[in-house]
Structure formats: C-alpha cells, structure tokens
C-alpha cells in the first residue's frame, strides 16, 4: 500500500537470509516498519508531538535496540553492539537495563541522525539474519524472544501512526500522511441490534501454542451473568447526538474524574474533531476531512465513553464479556492491512453475531487493567513489559485500523489511562439482559 | 472515652425526643461527632490540612447539611432552612445540588463561625427530633434516608480524625489530639501463618434487611481459585525490613506509576514515619511516638503495599478473596470504640482463622473500585454518593481503628486512589496455593 | 477607633512601664496591633487566605518574635525565651536565623493557640518594659533596633488588614471586618489637573536623624527632566472607562508579561470588583459595597496600571519624580488613622499642588526596586530585611488607607511584584512636559 | 569560517542584485544566516530545545517573514505572499499581526519542510533584490525598515547558535556544532585591576545617524557617582573558587528569588558545566570540552552573577556605568567574526583601560530593563519590538562571542529575565570608589 524509497534498502540482504517462516515474519515486520515511515521526511521523524507520543525515528531505533538487547546480545556469539550509547538513547522503560533518555525528551535526539538509525537497523538486521542462518534448530527461548520482538515491533508500528497523527494534528497546516483515498458512499448506519449472551462459566485468557503476551494468561474460568452486546460500534452520528444533547455540559452524566478532566481540558468533542461554519471535520492520516457520520467514533477517552454509555442508558462491557462475544465472531476487520487508516462504517449486513469486534477502534471496557489470577511477571527485564503497568488503566480490546491483523488475538489486552485519547479508541455498548 | 464541654450541649433535648432505636442511633451518632471534636479548639477546627482533607468545622456542618437536604427538606412539612447560603458552603460534591465552595478552599470558611455551625447542628437536630416524634410510622424511604445520613456521618467521623492527624502532623509542634495512653507491653509479633481457602463459586456483596451502600450490591456469585491469606496484617517490623533492604530504592519492585510517585514525592517510609538519631517515630493522634514494631503498618499507599508484597514474593488479595475470608472471622476488632486510636498488635493467639480482618487499618486489595455486575446508581443526588467515583481507585476492606464498629460490614467497600496515604491504610498478604 | 475585648488586656502593665516617648510609641504600637485584631475571632485569625498572605495570629506572633530575637535576646540580661520552638514557627525569611515554617503553610499553625500567642505578646511586652525601665541611657544600637521593631510591626499592621480582606473576599458570605460607616455624598471628581515640575538635579533618599529603612539611602543626587504629574489619583470612574473601552481585551495596550498574566488569570477588572446585574461592587473591609466611582482605584497590578497609563496616552512616574513632587505636598492624607479603611475621593479643592500623595493607595512607579548608589545591606540577619528583595519588583510610594501615618516618609519605598494586587495599590499618571 | 552546501545556493542571484552598501549588507546578512545553519541537518533544524529557544528552521523562516511583512508587503508593488499560512507559523509575538503558533510549540512545525523554508528565503530574497533594484532613491522609512530587518536577523543569528547549543547540550551524545579548534595555551589570568571613573553628568543612549533600536534612546544625561570597574570579565577560575567556597550552598549570599531558584532548579554551577571524576567540563559549540579556567565565565543567571558579586564584596555595574566605561574602550573583541564561538581569556596586556568590554559574554548589569526618559514605543507592529518587554528583566551590555560585531554599539541594550542562562551571559565586577 505505502511506497517509498526507504522501503527498498533492506530487500536484497533480507531475502537472502530468509530461511523459514519465522525468519520471513521477522524480516517482513522489519520491512513494514520502514514502509510505514516512508511517507515521512527526516524532519517529520525526529519531532515528538507530546509527552506520551514518540518520534518515528525513536520508534525505528527502539524496536531495533529491542532485538539487539534481547536477542543478539544473549544469543549471537561475538555480536558487537552498534553503539554503546544507544542503550541510553533507546531504552524505553526497562529499569533492569539502566538509565535512559527521559520519555518527554525523546524528541530532542536530533542525533543520532536518521541515516545512522537506518544503518543501525541494517546492522541489526544483518546480525539477525546471521543468527537465524546459523540456528538450524533454534532453542525455544530464542524462538520465543524473537516472537516477542516481532510483536513488540508491531505494537510500535501502530504507535508510529498514531504519534504521527498527533504531530500532524498539532500542525496548523494539517498535513496528510498520505493523500485521501476515494471512498464508497456509505449506507446510512442501521440501528443498533442487540445480541444476547447466556450467563455461566467461561474460559478466558490465552493458552496454547501460539504467541501471546504474559498479561493474557493464565487462562482461567470466569463467571458471567447473562449480558447483551451491541452488534456494532458506536458511530460518529450517535456521538453527535450526544454532543447536541449537551452531553459535554451535563455534570451528572460523568464520572467525577471525568468531569474534572473535561473542565480542566476544555473538551467539547472527541480529540481531532473541529467545527468550521457549522460543519464537523476530523483530522486524520489523510488530513482534515469531513466527519464520516457512519464510521465508528474514535479518539474518545474512557471518561467520554463512560458518559456516553450512561447517557444511552447502557454501560460498557467488561473485558470478559467482550472476549466471550468475540469468540463468536471471525477475527477479521479493518486492520492496518486494509490500508484504510481510518475507522470505517460497518459494511456487512446485521447477521446476529457481533460485527466490528476486530479492527477499526480499540474498544474501551469497564475492566481495570489488572493481573489475571495466578499471573506472575516473568523474571528479568522482559518481565517489565506488561506487569508493571497494572494500575490505574483500563483494558481495551479488539485492535484498530492501524493494528497489524496478525498481531491481534481474542485474548489480546491493550491498556490506556482513562484520560488518554490519541490512539484509535472507541466503544461498543453493553447492557444487562432485561 | 473522650470528654469535652461541647459534648454536653445537645443532651437535654435529645434524650427527650428519642423514641426508638433509629432515633437513638441517630442522635447517638450526632452526639459522638461532637464528642470527637471536643478536644479541638475553634482554631483547630477551621483549618484544612491539605486539599484532600477537610476542616473539622466543615465536617460538622456538612453532615448537618446532609440531613437538612436529604431528610428535612423533603420530609418535614414547613421546615425552614437554617441559612440558604449553607448549601453553597457545605455541599461536598453533589452536582445535582448546584455550585459549591471549591474543595481545596474549604479551609477559608472562617465564617460561618464554629458557634454558628453548632447552632446549625442544634437547629437540625431539633427538627429531626420533631420529624421522628411526628412519624409514628415513618415511610421506608425516610427510614432509608435516615440510615444513609447516619452512615454518612459515621464516615465523616473517621475522616475528621484522619484529617486532624494530617493537620497536627504538619505542625512543627506535633500536637497530640489526646494524651498518650499507657499500653501493655506487646509480645513480639509471631511469624505469619497462612490460611488456605478453597476455590469455587462464592456469593459476595450485600443482600438483606440491614443497611448497606449501593456499591455493595448487587449480591452476586464470583468464581475464585484456591488462595491463601496471611492470618494477620503486615507489621511495622516487617516494613522496616523492607526499608532496610532498600525497598524504596529498588525500581524493579515497583509498579511504574508507583516508582514515579516515590521519585516525585521523595518517599522513603510510610507517611508519618520520622527517623531521629537512628530511631523511628510515628506521628499519631497521641503525638509523635516511638514506632510500635508489632503494630500493623499504616499510612502506606497502594503503590507501597504492592511493592512490599512483590518484595515478599506474595501479592495483595482481591476484594472477593478478602470477603470470603472475612466471612469466617468474627466482625470485631480495634475500631473507634476501643479508643485506641492507633493500630494495635494482634492480641489473640494464632487460631487458624484470619485475625485483624476488622479494624486497625483498611486493607488494600488488588481490586479496582468498579461496579458489581448489574449495579446502577440510584436516581437523584444521592446517586452521586458512590457511583461516580468508580474509576482509578482501589478497594479497601475491613475498617480501621477510627471507624465506628457498627459502620462496617463484611461487604463494605472503601476506596482510595493508589497514591493516597493519609487514611489508616495497611495491608495483608495473599498468595496462590502452591 | 476600633474596639474589642482583646484591646484591654495589656493596658495595666504597659502604662506603668512607659517612661519615655520611645516607650510610649513602642507600647502604643503593640497595643494598636491588638486593637486591629479585635474584630476577629480566633478562627479568623488562624487561616491563611493565600500563599502571599499570612494569618493574623501569625502576624501577632511574628512581630513579637521580632522583638524577642532582635531586642530582648541581645540586650536584656537573663532573658528567657518564651518558647524555643517559636523561632521555627515565626521566623519569616531570615536565613541567618535558621529553618522556618514554609511560608505557604503558615495557616497550618492551629497551635500554638491564639491564647498562647497572646501570652507570648505579654511575656515579651513585660520584658520590653523591664528593658526600657532599666535602660536610663539606652545605647544607640538598642534605640535603633527598637525603632526597627516598631516600624516592622507597623508594616505588619497594614498586612494584617489586607490579608484579612483577602480572606473575607474569598468567603462566599462576604463578611465585613467592621460595619459600613456612613459616608458623605462625594462631589463628582473634577478633571485631572497637571502640575509641572522643572528638570534638574534633586536630592532624594533619606538622610538625617529620624528613622528610615536602609533601602531609603544613601541620600543622593538624581538628574530629572522636566515632568508633569496628575494632581490626584486615578479614580474608579476613570478605570471603568478603561474597562468599557475594552482595555482588558486589547493586547497592544499591555506589556507582554501583563498580557500573559491577564490571559492566564482571566482578569477583567481590578481585584475585588464584582458585577451584579450590571452594577459594580467592590469587596472591602466593610463587606461588599457599591463601587465608589470618585474614589481612587485600588487593587490593580503593575501590569494593569501600566496598561491604563498607556491607554491614557500617559505613563507612570518614576519613584524620583514622585519623591520630588511629594516634597511639595503636606504629609497628610487618608491613612489608617482616619479609620476610613478604604480609599476616599480627593476632598480638598484643586490647589496647584499634588493631592492624595499620601495615604489612600500605594502608587505604582515605573521604577524597579533596586539599590540606591552606594547602598549596602547591613551586616547580620537584619541585613536581610530589604536588600535581598531587590530584583523583579517595582517601587510604590506614599502609603495607603491602612498604613499608620507616622510610618510613612517622603522617601519611603514599598515594593511588590508586578502581578500582585491584594494590597491597596493604585496609580497616578505622569507625562513629559510637552 | 563555516562552510556548507547550503551556503552556496543563494550566491548567484544575490551578487547580481547587489547594488549598494545597504544591499550588500542585507544580502551578506541573509547569506550569513544560511552559513551558520550549514553544519546542521534538517533534523537538527526542526527541533526546539526548550520553551525559550526556537528551532533553526523557525529562525530561518521568521527572519524571512519579517522582511516579507515589514518591507515587501508595504513597499513592493504587486508583491505576492509566498504562503498566507506563514503569518500564523512564523509571527513571533506581534499582537498587531494576529494569532500565531504558540511559542512552546514552534518545534512541532515539521511542515513546512526545510526545503520549503529555503525556497521561502529565496522568494523573499529575490523580491528584496527587485525592490532594491527598483529603488534608486529609497524613501527613508524603507531604508530604516531594511536596517531593522538586518539587525533583527543578526539577533536571530545569535539566537540560532545559542539555541543549537541548548539542543546539543540536552543530547546525551553531546554533539559538536563544529569540530574543536586548536587553541593557544592561555597565560594564567592576571589579577583583576580596577579602573576608576569620575562622577558627574554623562550623556548616555544613542543619538545620531547610524541605526539603533528604539530602546537605546532618547539620549539623555545621567548623573553618576565615582565608580570603579574591573578591567576584565570574571573568569571560570574565579567562579570555581566561589563554588569551592560553598557559594551555591550559602543562602545569605543570594537574593531571595535567587535562592528560591537555585533550590527549585538544583543549580550547583553554571549551566553547561559538568563534573566528571573531579574534573570540570563545559558543553560548548565544540562539544563537551575541559573547562578553560582563564576564559570568562558564561551561562550564569542574574541571580548567580549577583551572588558572586556579593561574595566578592563587590557589586554589578549599572548599565550607565558600563556605558561610560565602554566609551573609553575600542569597540572590538571576541565577536562572531573571530569564529571562536566561545569566550576567550583576555589576550591583551592590562593597560589601564577596560578590556573585554565587547564580545565574549553579555555582561549583566544591576539595571532593570526600563524605558529611558521620554521613550515612547513607535506606532504599529514594530512598536512591539522592544517596548513591551520593559518589566521584570535586566539589561546586559557588550555583546558576546556569537554576536555579529557590526550589530553592537556602546549604547546597545540587551535584556533577559534574571533566571535565564542559556545565552552567553557573564559579568564584570564594579564597586564604589573607596
Ligand atoms: Fe517498546
Ligand atoms: Fe459527605
Ligand atoms: Fe516581618
Ligand atoms: Fe524576531
């Protein structure tokens, strides 16, 4: 989908070293990262839009540092660090691995230059190719760590795009990451339909052979009451009705912290919405575009999602309700691979099973991000990956329009603070069975 | 236990009007509030120690405003408001009831004076007596609202004492709320014993005739795995070992937000601990006292409790584990009624059932403060009491040494933000069954 | 003028020990402080309205600590400190004298109680009486330090009243420090008249026998160009015209820092102005009162004074222009002694000399608060009194309606930061001679 | 001195259009800006080091916008704006000219790209060449505005270098703007010599034909007392003695605001000093270099300069003392033209006249930045250039090692806030004549 000069530079050597499915996935992932960066200039790649975002160049380097640190150094004999200073520059938050560039100052790293970071990627990719070439029978721990590295890089692919959107949205010229694509005229979004699920004991969480994050396990039983789930995501049209009904001015609809947040931040609509001459627009990776009323609402905080649900007389689902429902839906949807780069209206007909469970927007759940019963973070630096964030955040499920499809599972748990909005975050309503 | 001139002023009229158990409890609660304030001067009562605390005078007035607003205005014909301006002054957070004095500025209310607030209490108490005298058969809604008012005032009794402690702790003279009491020499705290609980489906939450807060229901089933709970609270002696082992300097023991908090706030020990010449002291309602090593640790944040548990190789219990265990323990302990005003060492012998489940300190649980399945906040202003705080906080269970004993239930859910420390907050360890 | 029970308690012993003019002034000053506090309750006296204000009780104690520290300890043999902890509690900012209660937390000192602070005053007053009784020929250094102590206490008398005003203004009940007094109907304020002053070399600053602060010297020559000064202060009526003309919405009228301040703080009028139903009111020591249009405007920052002057096509005077003009005016005016407690319209007829130079409001000058040529701060702790504040502030001249008259001199230099407003701060226009 | 590919791109058309001294200076200034940027990558040019600094690209565009707005639009018939959106992007602080990119967010402007900004420069340079080619007799107002534009761009040349230093100092790799140059071994700095100046009336401020900023006038008489000035700047060696003597730990040496600043910011040495293994280094445009003990100290705030002077038993000079002394010294020194890019030790022998008055470091004076008598800001947007900053700042004199030499005059007044340090700011001692 995306094309750019940068995308080509790694092809030759990689194709030579690819000798297995794992290797293919590894280098395809590495290549895709470069492809996603291709529309950007070096200038675009160095700047940090805000504290919680990171520059593209930093993402390029950090994902590389990740392989160097967790794969090459322990597993490749004689591996030479590309640059010792990069541990300081590109360690994100691993306390086990020492001091690091403060997160709000990642955007000050005009050096190392983009060229040097690309050379770093090549250096590491070559070493990975060497490692995989040597290893006819890779030990399971190496295989697992490579999987972690691939999945880690996929997460940063999503972050790259959302961080670029944050940067371009803050620019008065409202640049587009790519030109707008023609869209089919959407059918008006049909009314919500509700799907009922029976109560009972369900198994949730990940188990089995495939890769999953530590926070998706242990697989365990949960006891659910009967519940009802909307068959599609909440749309911009529905959100507009909430705005028009004074949703953002009615204190009693909001959680106390939510009301404090919208007062403090002066929020009156989702992030990236702008009203000009009575018409609503939304900043997107295709620049400022008229709001697509039938598309799912995105860039809303937990506070807003919760207030909308209360205004609707409904509630948000728990992460387990979502997971149980998702097990009945095909794991397909508007992911990064569709190249839409925006949430899209539900396209298939209502069919009695939940639609848009995957892709489009991450779905806020009522569930706080906490450990599953029996969870213990792994030993060592990688144990910091997920476990130390288990306070103060909420779980989101299902992936978004900028998530790589093969990154997602039914048991996948994403997590953000209730005030955060810059990711593609939306919602689906739930309720009790009457 | 506590004596003071203020305590006597309401006796005459109240005893005359008391005609029932409800009435007795109501006026006894009202009287106890005054008794608790008795050791304080008007100066002590007007000042606000910090944003999250409130002045004693404000507590005295706010609890009175609560009865005026929710009981007298709707239920007593012809009731005259004591002062219309008091709705602004003493409304805490009810958006349904209009604008109010900003929370961080409650301490600026030198007017109305203490005398006028005491007159307000008398005015409202007399009207309550009149209402109860009239009502030979009070409607259930009135009875319920009276219960809410009593329980509300009990919560503020606890807050009064913790807010006074915060105020006195900030005073360089380290004043005592009351003179130190002689204590029995504690036996050295015996080693922790572990009590195992079987997995399975348990009923939790409140149901039945007695009063409970809306957030304790609906009663519902939960599915628990086998778990193991410490038979007593974590002690100061154990906490000192954590400090001595560098607990506050070891990033990898902490949740990410916790580490950020202790770095930002420069925490090196529980709130109110002070080290002088190598000896540890603790500020208490009896002034600055040598640390009682066998008493339960108090005034620790969720972050600290979690880090301690990790350092111990254990974890915090969930609120449901706690509730299931508590059902096996007598609902007695070191509450406000013991007049200890401080956590005490476990006094009874290890006996195979959990001790100190009630009183001493609120116990942090791993559970975020969220609605139970099927929970809906009541309509109207009282619906704001609990529901709108259901984000970002954690559940604590069991009550503390400044909680009135009859305020507590096995299903009682208290909640604080993970950084808060000024309440009597401690912990009990849990773990999986090996 | 003001009467209260507290005012009487020191009379007996003081009259016995008064033996000289100095002694009379000392104890009269000490008495006046108590008289000024008399309308206040203990509650009113303990609370701190905001960071830059102090509680009345703190003023009562701090002025006493000042005599204890700088007079009694060095000069009275065998003097016993009243309480050693008071150095920590009531040292304001003297680094020479060690650690102290942080300024923003002076309002947390509910202990020592007001009674104990009053006993402190008595203890120190008795010791001062003893010292003065012994000293038939007091050494000049003692005499000077006593003068410093008297003048210091006078400054705090003014601060007490402005800090109380700040406290009551923040109270939704808008209490009055004293009941409103009847006022004569003011004549409409006549147009400004301009008074010309010749250029040339003038002597400024203090010299001679009487007391002056170190920052008023050395007396030195300044070279002035011819200038023109308004014969009265800017009035509320004139300020209203500025408001009505969009003064607070016109960026180009403001200093850059001033515009930033009014945007940040959302200022649209002087501090303490409130508009109700199209009519303007002003919070005062007599409570919320209709704005007196002919009275001088008060409670404006330097930024506002400067913007008003620019809007008027004029400028603020320098401190030396003011001083030269003031030398031609009688040192009388609406000081604390008139008991007006508010700025008053100019009462005397225009007479070709500047009116209202003294009293009513401190007058902002264009002059930064900097040392005079040859200034050196005295040695020791008292050297911190004025010198260490010589950066970032502006000089104000002339005293206000809450300044004791005998505290003021033509050379007197007060100083505040350009954003501050809670004192009685106003302005007089100046300009070049055409 | 500095070489780079970017420096060449404008040469052709400029040499053709140069037809006069003014034109030469204009295009030489424009060329120099590009030359100064030449060592930087596009990445280096887009990032903003901190709020008070600006990105190089922004400087390149803003100086161009300045000519477009103040010269081309009013004076060149038919001039077409390069891009209307640039007024928003590159207006710095001119309220007359409408809304603008917030100063702290200048670094978010990854678009317009560097290429487009360079095209903007070409577009404007060509139009300027056309304007100058047409104007055989340019009107005085145009000539004056061109001068303003040249001087404005010179100021930004200095800011570009100091802002780049700030950016590289914040980078863990400590990049160098250019490679270190060999230096002659400095002679040990000889002791300070003092030069006496007589008191009396002196004329100060600018008058005459040459260009000066509005804030340098009106020229006027000042009356000075005899004073004494050090014949050279304070050195790093002397500053080290201050550090070693506990200067940064001794509260009584500091202005109150200064002490608060160093406590809050945790300052223990000048900005850019770093101590490694007991040796001091200084970050410079040549990267991290051993501290040159004989060079003038730089990157100190007013607070630090003032504390150092107090520790020395001396004081800072006033801006008029400085100006009177500077009139006796040749206007030459270590400016940008020496290409040292760092302060250098005094090289010439003590000779009874003040040395290092020009160049090396801006010299803090005791004088607040205030209008000269009779000053009025010009009408219109350019009137905002200097006048609206006349509060809260101090005057610095003499230029620095990154100031273009022909930008400076004896009457030149620079100004910064007392806490600022990122410019080349140093000091020279003064004192009274004994
Ligand atoms: Fe990462
Ligand atoms: Fe309450
Ligand atoms: Fe004082
Ligand atoms: Fe500029």
From TrEMBL, chains A, B, C, D:
DinB-like domain residues: 28-160
Keyword flag Iron: yes
One Pfam family it belongs to: FGE-sulfatase
Organism: Methylocystis rosea
Pathway: Amino-acid biosynthesis; ergothioneine biosynthesis
Ranges of residues in domain Sulfatase-modifying factor enzyme-like: 194-334, 355-430
Protein origin, superkingdom: Bacteria
UniProt-recorded name of the protein: Ergothioneine biosynthesis protein EgtB
TM regions (residue ranges): none
Keywords of the record: Iron, Oxidoreductase
Keyword Oxidoreductase: yes
């Amino acid at each position: 989908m995306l094309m750019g000069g940068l995308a080509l530079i790694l092809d030759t050597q990689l194709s030579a070293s690819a000798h297995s499915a794992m290797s293919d996935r590894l280098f395809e992932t590495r290549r895709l990262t470069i492809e996603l960066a291709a529309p950007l200039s070096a200038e675009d790649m160095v700047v940090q839009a805000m504290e919680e975002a990171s520059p593209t160049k930093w993402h390029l380097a950090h994902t590389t540092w990740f392989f160097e640190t967790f794969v090459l150094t322990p597993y490749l004999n004689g591996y030479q660090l590309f640059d010792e200073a990069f541990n300081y520059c590109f360690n994100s938050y691993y306390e086990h691995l020492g001091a690091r560039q403060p997160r709000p100052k990642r955007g000050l790293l005009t050096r190392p230059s983009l060229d040097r970071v690309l050379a770093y990627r090549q250096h590491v990719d070559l070493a990975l190719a060497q490692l995989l070439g040597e290893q006819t029978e890779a030990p399971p721990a190496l295989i697992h760590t490579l999987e972690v590295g691939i999945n880690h890089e996929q997460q940063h692919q999503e972050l790259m795009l959302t961080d670029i959107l944050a940067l371009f949205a803050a620019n008065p010229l409202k640049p587009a990451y790519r030109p707008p694509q023609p869209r089919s005229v959407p059918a008006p979004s049909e009314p919500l339909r509700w799907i009922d699920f029976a109560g009972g004991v369900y198994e949730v969480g990940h188990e089995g052979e495939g890769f999953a994050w530590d926070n998706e396990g242990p697989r365990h039983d949960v006891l659910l009451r009967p519940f009802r789930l909307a068959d599609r995501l909440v749309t911009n049209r529905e959100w507009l009705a909430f705005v028009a009904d004074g949703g953002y001015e009615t204190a009693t609809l909001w959680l106390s912290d939510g009301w404090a947040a919208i007062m403090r931040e002066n929020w009156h609509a989702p992030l990236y919405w702008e009203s000009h001459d009575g018409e609503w627009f939304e900043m997107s990776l295709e620049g400022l575009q008229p709001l697509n009323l039938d598309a799912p609402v995105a860039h809303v905080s937990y506070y807003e999602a919760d207030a909308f649900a209360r205004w609707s007389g409904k509630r948000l689902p728990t992460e387990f309700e979502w997971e149980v429902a998702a097990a009945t839906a095909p794991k397909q949807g508007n992911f990064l691979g569709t190249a839409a780069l925006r949430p899209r209206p539900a396209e298939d007909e209502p069919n009695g099973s939940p639609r848009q469970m995957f892709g489009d927007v991450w779905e806020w759940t009522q569930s706080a991000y906490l450990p599953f019963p029996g969870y213990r973070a792994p030993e060592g630096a990688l144990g910091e990956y997920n476990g130390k964030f288990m306070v103060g955040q909420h779980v989101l499920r299902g992936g978004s329009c900028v998530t790589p499809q093969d990154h997602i599972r039914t048991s996948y748990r994403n997590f953000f603070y209730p005030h955060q909005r810059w990711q593609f975050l939306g919602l689906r309503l739930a309720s009790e069975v009457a």
